[in-house]
Amino acid sequence: MKLCVIPARGGSKRIPRKNLKDFCGRPIIGWSVVAARRAGCFDQIIVSTDDEEIAATARNLGASTPFMRPPELSDDHTGTTAVIAHAIRHFDAAGTPPTLVCCLYATAPFASADDLCAGLERLQDSDADYAFPVTRYPFPIQRAVRLDEAQHVRMFQPEHFATRSQDLEEAWHDAGQFYWGRREAWLAGTPIFSPRSLGLPVPRHRVQDIDTPEDWLRAEWLFKAMQAER
């Protein structure tokens, strides 16, 4: 079974009730549910939550909520891997063990059905543990700087001050949208960022973390611009 798990706990602090907040016309979690349904590659799409309102909204959007997430997996310190492993064990106990599981974040309105299918295909065609979208850094990370308490600038890698940008290795980062993984990797707690993972390149304009109100505003601007071009 191919399972989509959308983690969506109720206790967001920086953006209160973030998973239910309206984003361009629907609760932001709705965009993830819609993308998963459009992908057509999942046998089940579930939302893992500790919150009754989120659970009801998820069901109205077309996802299922076969369990409520326990409090010990719903605090600020619980990682993604533990939440996905909990979902896998639930289905194991029900006699329908999943083989490939996708963790799709609830605040990932730029995740697309096509990318979800491409990530699945990339994982199935390999012996990797995980596959997930990545995008390029817009500036060479080798020339990044830090600021001290007096706002003085220090380079992280001063040896590259005079190196031409085109001569520096290109760097990528996690798009923060979804992770396809094999059940064994999720259950074993295998690190997602390792040579056992495959990156799926996506363009920078479709990547935006949404952790602060500023992030939210920028994401809405990007999303509306993309919709206007269609």
TrEMBL record:
<dbReference type="InterPro" id="IPR050793">
    <property type="entry name" value="CMP-NeuNAc_synthase"/>
</dbReference>
<keyword id="KW-0548">Nucleotidyltransferase</keyword>
<dbReference type="GO" id="GO:0016779">
    <property type="term" value="F:nucleotidyltransferase activity"/>
</dbReference>
<dbReference type="InterPro" id="IPR003329">
    <property type="entry name" value="Cytidylyl_trans"/>
</dbReference>
<dbReference type="Pfam" id="PF02348">
    <property type="entry name" value="CTP_transf_3"/>
</dbReference>
<protein>
    <submittedName>
        <fullName>Pseudaminic acid cytidylyltransferase</fullName>
        <ecNumber>2.7.7.81</ecNumber>
    </submittedName>
</protein>
<dbReference type="InterPro" id="IPR029044">
    <property type="entry name" value="Nucleotide-diphossugar_trans"/>
</dbReference>
<dbReference type="InterPro" id="IPR020039">
    <property type="entry name" value="PseF"/>
</dbReference>
<keyword id="KW-0808">Transferase</keyword>
